[in-house]
Specification:
The complex is a heterodimer of chains A (538) and B (423). Chain A is an alpha+beta fold and 538 residues long. Helix content of chain A is 36%, strand content 22%. The mean pLDDT of chain A is 93. Chain B has four domains: 11-91, Fumarate Reductase Iron-sulfur Protein, Chain B, domain 2, CATH 1.10.1060; 98-137, no CATH class; 153-287; 301-407, Rossmann fold. Chain B starts with 21 loop residues before the first helix and ends with a helix. Classes of the chains: A alpha+beta (538), B alpha/beta (423). At the A-B interface, helix 5, helix 11 and helix 17 of A face helix 3 of B.
Chain lengths: 538, 423
């Protein structure tokens, strides 16, 4: 920990992209900061979305303000987070069942919001993006891109620390310490040891996404939020090179995004009770809708292997004067609870989108600075994140795993040391993760378990879903972190987490793959029996 | 719009890969050369990354022998070898070198070399020439080029055999391949002898070009495709005349049956089922009771049979071994299934020599231990490799058959018109 006396200028609650962004912004402005995350960074909505870097075109017709924010942040992220971004561009296609008249409205709205939108001939679109539905009758090209939320968040956390911040994942805020209508600190429980620690700060910023509603309740404050579940499916490899959207009013399953080695179709949108948000599961009906609509964007999805399904929860906020939630905004909401609820030292930043996290962080940090009487300029729009200081190396002639690691870590990849054949040995063969990369992640990126390791390196994200790599990775994690005792339970939890995503799409090759995994870990290695024995011993 | 994707872009079943890694266990290259990442990674794993960005194409894919043993091993029917070859075709950043073009252009080089065969053979055998080839052309100095024949098989056939082929009741066409034509016409002569003995007239195709296997291996895909189209057109004509096409080379057969449609996009419908290896054709005729074989009683030979990789891929070794087993005086040892390491032109390249010999090591030791009179195999490049690396000479099963058959007796058994012809 950088800070030894347990008192900070700012405590940020929530290790999603918003919280990580706030921590970075505060730290860069010279504030002392503590970031607290209940599970792993990106565990909430940040890690459960499309990985789409919106151009803003999707919102241009319905929400010009959001659209403008998106395109501005889009252009900023290309510069400051180049190692997390793949500049794919996107198409908005019109199918025969859609109204081609909407295209004109759409293009005009895009241009009004400052988004470049070029109408292109359907024949040209078919050449540009061979996977697109060949029946399309119209296409518009926009500056959409794909972005890796895991890398983006970790880069923000790492940079916050480089600027003096402290950051703890697997620490759950259980209580806000309140004194004379002022939040003066938090109690946080270490999720591994159970130990409860107290931390104090002049300002506490609630950036916990949908869980922010529960954090506010700890101070007796009500925020009207509407959890909206969105389900998505991941395919085993890329079918498309560009983002493909439907050119119509936003609806279900109308975006297909190429992300790293895979592509993702989504999403659905359904209100769910706040009590259920910790365990979102994809339903059969959602799978059906996603596939039926997805095939209209790219017909080859019908015959492409599906890896898994997952779902996240959008933290939508109702305006304070509309408790019914009828006029829900996707815009940014920054609440000064001193002004709103008479609770000093407490700010909630919520709403918005992953795309606009930096702007959200800037707004929240501005508010924190004014409360602290600090006058410092925001520099996050121009200072590259660690890993993006230079453009991606245009490498090629080197081993697959080294290439893959450069894609994941940007300029940080130079810190991965390949000193022996063992270092170069492959742990995850699907995604090209080497022993050296695992060691780098464990030593530098807050990796207490395999799920975190997966998010830092993509280990277990490939088509085998951990079958070959999970036990290798568990062994290395145990060795590098010096905690071999919990490796077995960690391995079992990791495989369960993988199965949770495979289950909704368990047919064909995905089912065969899962069966082979079960045979290896349960039949051959007796992992389930070993876990049962451990629990008996307890 | 031919580029539009309607069906899965999963060429060659790559999504069916369950990552079981059995292919890598069976890969002869991965076993001896750590620089090669193995078929799983070079094939289905790498393909996902190449779809993301072509920069993930790994030059180490050049080390693949294209032996297809991975495909034989795969329990999920992923055509791993095809994936790797296709990736090389799509992403290769190098142009074929002069050496590669020379090794691959078997027709052109063969034609020139046979014209001056004694000089060529003498020159290619000279130490200084080998040193120059090693140094300048990167053709390994340990290699011995197969000797060029003074008379091409086609010339021999036209002069000595063509005229009486129409006297037979049944007919086949013979795709002799470059090796028989330029280097070893004896195998072609043996083929004609055997086929005539069982009552079949032999004909050459209207036009025959090299099957293109060496061109595929050396990146000359367009040339390979052009030649393939010529071969298919000629074969279609032959098949229309009720003449199935036979070969005496497992690799030529495999290339034209399977690599043409999978890699070169050549349509071989209607040809594939009528294009076979001579041993398979003969075995099936014997098996169906349509021909009979008579053998020389004094014939004795101890044979060690080596299954060439493409023979294994086709699953056809059993036709050759069972045919050989019909010979009463023949003692047959089936060698364990191991790649010999040459893989056509692969082993001729200086950079591959060590890998090539390391792959073959087990096979060479098995051969020496078996102490056979001859090794038999259906592939000519295996023959060069085995003859260079062991003390044993190699014969094609058809040549063994030609030696073992009592030709006159066989002819009598298979020709109802024999009396009239002989009289």
């Amino acid at each position: 920990m950088n800070n030894k006396n347990n008192h900070y200028d700012v405590i940020v609650i929530g290790g999603g992209i918003t919280g990580a962004g706030v921590a970075r912004d505060c730290a860069m402005r010279g504030l002392s900061v503590l970031l607290l995350e209940r599970f792993d960074y990106t565990n909430g909505a940040t890690g459960r979305n499309h990985g789409l870097m919106h151009s803003g075109a999707r919102y241009a017709v319905t929400d010009k303000e959001s659209a403008t924010e998106c395109i501005e942040e889009n252009m900023i992220l290309r510069k400051i987070a180049s190692h997390c971004v793949e500049e794919t561009d996107g198409l908005f296609i019109t199918l025969p069942e859609d109204d081609l008249g909407y295209q004109k409205t759409f293009v005009e709205a895009c241009r009004a919001a400052g988004i470049r939108a070029d109408i292109i001939d359907p024949a040209e679109a078919r050449i540009m993006e061979p996977s697109v539905n060949p029946d399309l009758i119209g296409a518009v090209r926009v500056p959409d891109a794909s972005i890796d939320p895991f890398r983006l968040t970790v880069a923000n956390v790492v940079d916050a620390q480089l600027h003096g911040a402290d950051s703890l994942n697997y620490h759950e805020v259980t209580e806000l310490i309140i004194s004379q209508n002022r939040v003066v600190g938090v109690k946080a429980r270490d999720m591994y040891t159970g130990e409860v620690k107290e931390f104090y700060a002049d300002v506490t910023i609630n950036a916990a996404g949908i869980w922010g509603m529960l954090i506010a309740r700890l101070a007796g404050i009500t925020i009207n939020m509407f959890p909206a579940k969105g389900a998505l499916l991941i395919f085993g490899h890329r079918v498309n090179k560009m983002v493909i959207n439907r050119c119509r009013k936003p609806a279900n399953a109308d975006i297909l995004v190429p992300d790293d080695t895979v592509c993702v179709i989504g999403t659905t949108s359904d209100r769910v009770p706040i009590e259920t948000v910790d365990d979102m599961r994809v339903t059969d009906e959602e799978v059906r809708v996603l596939l039926a609509e997805g095939e209209k964007l790219a017909p080859s999805l019908a015959t492409t292997r599906i890896l898994r399904g997952y779902a996240g929860v959008r933290p939508l906020v109702a305006a304070d004067n509309d408790p019914s939630g009828r006029s829900i905004s996707r815009g940014i909401v920054c609440l000064d609870h001193e002004e709103r609820d008479g609770m000093a030292g407490f700010i909630t930043i919520v709403g918005g989108k992953m795309m606009t996290y930096r702007l959200m962080a800037q707004i929240a940090t501005d508010m924190a600075c004014s409360k602290l009487g600090k006058n410092a300029v925001c520099e996050t729009a121009t200072t590259p994140l660690p890993g993006s200081e230079q453009q991606k190396p245009a490498s090629g002639k080197q081993a697959f795993a080294i290439n893959a690691a450069e894609g994941r870590h940007g300029t940080f990849a130079s810190k991965i040391k390949y000193e022996s054949d063992t270092d170069r040995a492959m742990v995850c063969e699907c995604e090209g993760v080497s022993v050296a990369e695992i060691r780098y992640a464990v030593e530098n990126q807050h990796v207490p378990n395999l799920v975190s390791l997966r998010r830092r390196t993509r280990v277990g994200m490939g088509t085998c879903q951990g079958k070959l790599c999970a036990c290798r990775a568990a062994s290395l994690l145990g060795r590098f972190s010096g905690n071999i005792a919990k490796a077995q339970c960690d391995l079992a939890q990791f495989l369960d987490e993988r199965w949770k995503g495979v289950k909704p799409v368990a047919w064909g090759s995905a089912l065969r793959e899962a069966q082979l995994t079960a045979t290896i870990y349960q039949g051959l290695c007796g992992l389930d029996k070993a876990i049962a024995r451990k629990e008996d011993e307890k | 719009m031919a580029t539009t994707q309607l069906t899965s872009i999963s060429d060659h079943n790559f999504e069916q890969c369950l990552k079981c890694s059995i292919c890598t266990v069976y890969c002869p290259v991965a076993a001896v050369n750590p620089a090669y990442p193995g078929p799983k990674q070079a094939g289905p794993d790498g393909e996902r990354y190449r779809l993301k960005d072509p920069k993930f194409f790994d030059e180490a894919l050049k080390l693949c022998l294209n032996c297809k043993r991975c495909e034989v091993a795969c329990p999920s029917d992923v055509r791993i070898g095809d994936l790797i070859q296709q990736a090389r075709m799509k992403h290769k950043s190098y142009r074929p070198k002069m050496r590669d073009m020379m090794l691959a252009s078997t027709d052109l080089v063969g034609t020139m070399a046979t014209m001056v065969a004694p000089i060529t053979n003498f020159t290619l055998g000279l130490k200084p020439v080998k040193a120059v080839m090693h140094g300048v052309m990167a053709i390994d100095k340990h290699r011995t080029f197969p000797a060029y024949s003074q008379q091409k098989f086609e010339a021999w056939f036209n002069k000595n055999a063509r005229d009486y082929q129409n006297t037979f009741a049944k007919h086949v066409s013979y795709f002799h391949g470059c090796y028989v034509n330029y280097n070893f016409p004896q195998l072609g002569k043996d083929f004609v002898t055997v086929m005539n003995a069982v009552g079949y007239g032999v004909h050459l195709l209207e036009k025959e070009k090299c099957c293109g296997v060496a061109m595929i291996a050396n990146g000359m895909y367009n040339q390979a495709r052009k030649q393939g189209e010529v071969n298919m057109a000629s074969m279609r004509k032959s098949i229309d005349q009720q003449r199935p096409v036979l070969t005496t080379s497992s690799t030529c057969t495999f290339t034209m049956r399977d690599e043409y449609p999978e890699l070169l996009g050549i349509n071989n419908d209607g040809v594939r089922d009528n294009l076979s290896l001579a041993t398979r054709f003969l075995f099936q005729l014997v098996d169906e009771g349509k021909i009979k074989l008579a053998f020389r009683p004094e014939f004795k030979m101890r044979i060690a049979y080596h299954t060439a990789c493409h023979m294994q891929r086709m699953g056809w070794a059993i036709y050759s071994t069972e045919l050989l087993r019909m010979i009463p005086g023949l003692e047959l040892i089936e060698l364990d299934q191991n790649c010999c390491g040459i893989s056509g032109t692969y082993g001729f390249k200086k950079e591959n020599y060590e890998t090539s010999q390391a792959i073959g090591e087990t096979l060479f030791a098995d051969i020496e231990a078996a102490k056979p009179d001859y090794v038999s195999t259906d592939c000519e490049t295996c023959k060069w490799q085995i003859e260079m690396s062991t003390s044993v000479k190699v014969l094609n099963p058809i040549s063994i058959l030609a030696q073992a058959l009592d030709i006159d007796a066989t002819r009598r058994l298979n020709s109802s018109e024999w009396h009239r012809m002989d009289a």
